[in-house]
Design goal:
The complex is a heterodimer of chains A (about 120) and B (about 110).
Chain A: E1 3-7, E2 11-13, E3 18-25, E4 33-39, E5 46-51, E6 57-59, E7 67-72, E8 77-82, E9 91-100, E10 103-109, E11 113-118
Parallel strand pairs in A: 2-11
Antiparallel strand pairs in A: 1-3, 3-8, 4-5, 4-9, 5-6, 7-8, 9-10, 9-11
Chain B: E1 4-7, E2 10-13, E3 19-25, E4 33-38, E5 45-49, E6 53-54, E7 62-67, E8 70-75, E9 84-90, E10 96-97, E11 101-105
Parallel strand pairs in B: 2-11
Antiparallel strand pairs in B: 1-3, 3-8, 4-5, 4-9, 5-6, 7-8, 9-10, 9-11
């Protein structure tokens, strides 16, 4: 059974760094990439970055300067770090999986991690 | 960057109605468009991939159509459990989400 699960702090102070973990099961990170997506309260979805199955990364240009995504394939975990947090980074953060663009894109999602940035 | 224009933003319909939601891309995205359902407090669920392919386990009342720049999600007979926000995602060139359609029962 394919599963993704986000974990991390619920509350982060402004100007600090957010660290989230996505733990996957039912598939291998060497066969699928992981995309981080966020959704501010009452708003739409924004893709943040991707770590591909070969370990390469791509980032949304709007967040690239603040964002880093890494992984530990032996633990089936993907890590997101975003620095210089502001209150408008308050959102639900999801991890999803991707085979490649055009093939199995975001077909499974984690339940989401709610993060509040406090000033 | 590809922009996705989704309409309507809000939709109220009766049980049993045929419902359509549209997404328009700012340029050709071939058939690389997915549709998702997001119920309140839940993660998005994939309904349709690559414009018209029904994801496993999704009821057949959901269907998708379109190619190029214009796409439609159709619910053939609206059920109470379909109350949710629906959004599209293009994955032809990077990723862009539609703004969402909130569907309610009249």
């Amino acid at each position: 059974q394919v599963q993704l699960k986000e974990s991390g702090p619920v509350l982060v102070q402004a100007s600090e760094t957010l660290s989230l973990t996505c733990t996957v099961s039912g598939f291998s990170l060497t066969n699928y990439g992981v995309i981080w997506v966020r959704q501010p309260p009452g708003k739409g979805l924004e893709w943040m970055g991707i770590i591909w199955r070969n370990g390469n990364t791509d980032y949304n240009s709007a967040l690239k300067s603040r964002l880093s995504i890494n992984r530990d394939t032996s633990k089936s975990q993907v890590f997101l770090k975003m620095n210089s947090l502001q209150t408008d980074d308050t959102a639900i953060y999801y991890c999803t999986r991707v085979r490649r663009f055009g093939v199995q894109v975001m077909d499974a999602w984690g339940q989401g991690a709610s993060v509040t940035v406090s000033s | 960057d590809i922009q996705m224009t989704q309409s309507p933003s809000f939709l109220s319909a009766s049980v049993g109605d045929r419902v359509t939601i549209n997404c328009k891309a700012s340029q050709n995205i071939n058939r690389y468009l997915n549709w998702y359902q997001q119920k309140l407090g839940e993660a998005p669920k994939l309904l349709i991939y690559n414009a018209n392919s029904l994801q496993t386990g999704i009821p057949s009342r959901f269907s998708g159509s379109g190619s190029g720049t214009d796409f439609t999600l159709t619910i053939s007979s609206l059920q109470p459990e379909d109350v949710a926000t629906y959004f599209c995602l293009q994955h032809n060139s990077w990723l862009t989400f539609g703004s969402g359609t909130k569907l309610e029962i009249k």
